[in-house]
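Hey,
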Amino acid sequence: MKMDAIMPGILMRLPIIVMFINGYILYRLLSVTGLAELFVIKSLSYRKFSPKALIFIIILVTALLSFFIPNTITVLTMLPVLKTIREKFDFKIDGRAKITTILTLSVIYGANIGGMGSLIGSPANLLLIGELDIYQGFRAL
């Protein structure tokens, strides 16, 4: 197979590749700087909160992040945040710490909500648009 036959296919998929690369660069920036963790901790420190408010804030932050980076990467970004919340705030239900499972599920739900809201949030959305572009002449990018 000649390189001349491969290049048009790569160039047609270049916007999709660039969007994935941008998502991973944004993940690394959030991971290194700790902005997601800072946002959650600051938003929790402004008022007295209940576990329901905490879950809502976690879902909201995760959904907003998942608009701009893939949802699986968003979950990985939020894991250190969950660890910090577990260490900083002591939630006990019947003498046992049951909040970790609830917070983890809220991150997963938030990532799914945000992933359906944008092309980059869920890789399946972006691949579908790319295939529609190739086979149907649909131009979304």
